[in-house]
Amino acid sequence: MKAEHAKQLEQLQHLLPEMAQLIASLIGLPRALKLIEAWGGTTFPISKNQRRQGQVRYEALAEVVGVDAADILTQHFGGEVLAIPRCAAALRAMRNQQIRDSFDTLTRHHPASHAVHQLARQYQITERQVWSVLKTATDWACNERQAVLF
């Protein structure tokens, strides 16, 4: 993962629901996001990995987050049904920042209208939504700039 992308994730961590923050504190934010992207908005029974059905669930979990992270989650949540949050606000903020970054890159070589058209297709949103994202400053970017002032 790029250092810039990791920094962006850390800056958005405050937007995550409490359960997502707990999961991130246990297995790290990048692996927590993999879990959220795979199963966000669902429940997942975390087995104690003792019976065959539990081993099947463990293997499915390990496939998404890795064996080390699956071990940690099993140890912490074993026997519970984990409600995996969708984290829509954080994921939308991350997508919007990626749109802004891509727009900056694309407009070095293309007109803004071409960049917006390309980003709308890439992110499967309307051009109007892309323009709206571009006009909106990020909260964390404003806070970061404000911190420099004081």
TrEMBL record:
Annotated Pfam families: Mor
Q: Extract the InterPro entries matched here.
A: Homeodomain-like_sf, Mor_transcription_activator
This protein is called DNA transposition protein
Q: Which organism is it from?
A: Aquitalea aquatica
Q: Boundaries of each Mor transcription activator domain copy?
A: 52-148
